[in-house]
Amino acid sequence: MSNTRRKVIITCAVTGSAHVPSMSEYLPITPGDIRDQAIEAAQAGAAILHLHARHPEDGRPTPSPDVFRQFVPAIAERTDAVINISTGGSTRMTLDERLAYARAAKPEMCSLNMGSMNFSLHPAAARIQAWRFDWEKAYLEGMEDMIFRNTFRDIRNILTEFRDYGTRFEFECYDVGHLYSLAYFVDRGLIKPPFFIQSVIGILGGIGADPENLQVMRATADRLFGRDNYHFSVLGAGRHQMPLVTMGAILGGNVRVGLEDSVYLSRGVKARTNAEQVRKIRRILEELSFEIATPDDARRMLGLKGRDKVSL
Question: Using N-to-C axis directions, what is the helix angle for 241-250 and 274-287, rounded to 10°?
Fold first, then answer.
């Protein structure tokens, strides 16, 4: 078991681009809702806020810098949380669209997916009886025939460009092979420690939500990088969220929660806010005698450049 006196970083992924509004009436889709839920999550204990944008009118994912600017600066003004801008966007966006706001903001941290993959929630469409917006059903069902593109060249170009900005990354690894892709770039000097690995467990198309798989991801990362060179974090998709992130903390990692990853608080109970999930995992961690990392703790642990060097 890991040292229970160490500090654990809580990341909150506020809205994402995979879930559709019909999955939960509490999913934040307007800039105001994203702003308010992000601020509340930070106040509840999230040191890092992982952010996507949505069209205010109907909740469709959007890469628009103008939409991001309707909520990101307000979050920065009212919290000291590390703001993490997604470069993943959605499978329907071009790479330039996905990078548009991150290029303008030059944030302390961005997410970066470490490989192309089948990424799909299409089975969820059959479970939704009433749709709020016309675009949602085709969007979910269409995932069955979509590829989430993240080629070696894409990744290399992002790493090279954002190195000039001083931005560091949440490296999202959906399977063991993504860890080896990360090692490829580490070996070529494009990624320097300490780096932040987000192990994504339970997405259809990625590694399955079995406890043994989480142990494989952790052991593989240790073997490839050495435990002193990286910080491990765990994201559990859907109903696997709380069990897997708790296990990840026990294995020496950090945790990620949020309505991007699961719209539920517990079995059959939807989370009304992102902060409810943050408060739940915080309580679990503190009952296990872990200390919760502050935003400044996270900056020190991850070697971030600081809020004063961004263009939010």
Answer: 40
Number of Cβ within a 10 Å radius of residue 51: 25
Residues 107 and 72: beta-carbon distance below 8 Å: no
For the chain, where are the E strands, in sequence order? 7-8, 10-13, 48-51, 53-54, 61-62, 82-85, 109-113, 117-118, 147-148, 168-173, 195-201, 230-236, 254-257, 264-266, 269-270, 291-292
Give the whole-angstrom CA distance, residue 124 versus residue 146. Answer: 15
**Dist CA 117 CA 71 (whole Å):** 30
DSSP state of 290: P
Region of residue 106 (phi > 0: left; psi between -120 and 50: alpha; otherwise: beta): left
- Tens-digit pLDDT profile for residues 86-108: 999 999 999 999 999 999 999 99
pTM of structure: 0.97
How many alpha carbons fall within 13 Å on the CB side of residue 191? Answer: 28
Give, as one character, the DSSP assignment of residue 21: G
* pLDDT, tens digit, 9 for 90 and up, residues 152-175: 999 999 999 999 999 999 999 999
Q: How far apart are CA 174 and CA 112, in angstroms?
A: 11
The number of residues making up the chain comes to: 312
| Amino acid present at 82 | V
For 71, the enclosing helix (H) or strand (E) is none
The whole-angstrom separation of Cα 92 and Cα 112 is 16
3-class DSSP state for residue 230? strand
Cα separation, 274 vs 104, in Å, equals 26
Question: Cα torsion for 147, 148, 151, 154, to the nearest 10°?
Answer: 130
Q: How far apart are CA 147 and CA 65, in angstroms?
A: 24
Query: For residue 191, what are the contacts with CB-CB under 8 A and spacing of at least 6?
Result: 159, 169, 171, 182, 185
DSSP string, 113-150: E-S-EE-B-GGGGGG--S-SSTTHHHHHHHGGG-EE--
